[in-house]
Input
Amino acid sequence: QVQLVESGGGLVQPGGSLRLSCTASGSIFRIYTMGWYRQVPGKQRELVAHITSGGSTNYADAVKGRFTISRDNAKNTVYLQMNSLKPEDTAVYYCKQGLTTWGQGTQVTVSS
Output
């Protein structure tokens, strides 16, 4: 059974940085596209960034130039480096593997 476990969320001041991690088990990690999504109450979950098995990346316009997605296939882990954080980045961040497998989410709060 595939499991995704996110970590690294927390409270940070505007302009600060956080790095989220998502570690997968029970799957052939390297063959999957991995994505980070976020959701705030009352809104749909939205794509933040994704990275293909070949390392190609794509970002939402709102985070381009501030966030970086990367993966370490040897560690079955995908990362999201978030810099220059803004209050509007506050959300629960979810990791996704392929089309259907989600992690449990990690809260990111950007506030002074």
Summary: The chain is about 0% helix and 50% strand. The chain has a mean pLDDT of 96. The two ends are 40 Å apart (CA to CA).
